[in-house]
Amino acid sequence: xxxxxxxxxxxxxxxxxxxxxxxxxxxxxxxxxxxxxxxxxxxxxxxxxxxxxxxxxxxxxxxxxxxxxxxxxxxxxxxxxxxxxxxxxxxxxxxxxxxxxxxxxxxxxxxxxxxxxxxxxxxxxxxxxxxxxxxxxxxxxxxxxxxxxxxxxxxxxxxxxxxxxxxxxxxxxxxxxxxxxxxxxxxxxxxxxxxxxxxxxxxxxxxxxxxxxxxxxxxxxxxxxxxxxxxxxxxxxxxxxxxxxxxxxxxxxxxxxxxxxxxxxxxxxxxxxxxxxxxxxxxxxxxxxxxxxxxxxxxxxxxxxxxxxxxxxxxxxxxxxxxxxxxxxxxxxxxxxxxxxx
Length: 342
Fold this sequence. Notes:
Layout: E1 2-4, E2 10-12, H1 20-40, H2 48-59, H3 65-79, H4 89-95, E3 99-102, E4 105-109, H5 112-131, H6 156-165, H7 169-181, H8 185-189, E5 196-197, E6 202-205, E7 216-219, H9 222-231, H10 253-263, H11 271-283, H12 288-295, H13 312-318, H14 329-332
Helix pairs in contact: 2-3, 3-5, 6-10, 7-9, 7-11
């Protein structure tokens, strides 16, 4: 199409279709929008695709960028080509994915937490679109109700049996390191020897690998240092690799699950090793604010779920404030009543 705006500017572009009728409709729509923008001062109608491109461009480099790309790819299959202003609470909630599909497998229902991540992405996109003045106001989107999180951890005896049941050496080392440091899976698998300060027994998690985007120092106890010693010489750059030297993108879930079954551990995932590490710390008396820094949590609220594992830390403070047991015998005598005249 080839259009002249009321101001004389030339707009020449493809309509993106082989249909003459569809191309003419698109031509007329663009021409009308250009006229209304020039004469009436109205903002041009933006499409979901335009917002998606700008949203992802501005999100580049963020730790959850891959998740945003995956979510936006899905939303474009639903709202691609539609005016951004046409998106409503009802249309979004109706289009929210309910199942995950697999090749040669039956579809599995999506957990509310996963659905909420899809909602978080499109909610953020629409809020930004409002800031860009592309829409007047973003629709309100309420999260799906997620079940209460139960902290799943194992005892030290179970952990020993579990580690002994792992058949792959590299997988055992990864799990040992997780139990010793509480580091997340992604932080462990991308750990490099350049990030290790053996002289001071610490590891560095850089901001680009941390979930919170904050760099932090991780103290290494004797267990963690023993794991590092067993990994020396296996790879020049990475601490943890497969036996062949290939870099790790994920742990071996089959080996992990098999070891759990051998020991009789149920409803347990790799992230449960981090929960276990935190639970052991609280049971040993580590203060929650210290645990927060050790584990790289952003807020103290995130570690409060472990507080119930050590109620003893409260008992030490229970006698800090008393009044009856500290009174003298004289003070225990009730005061005499004084008659008040009318």
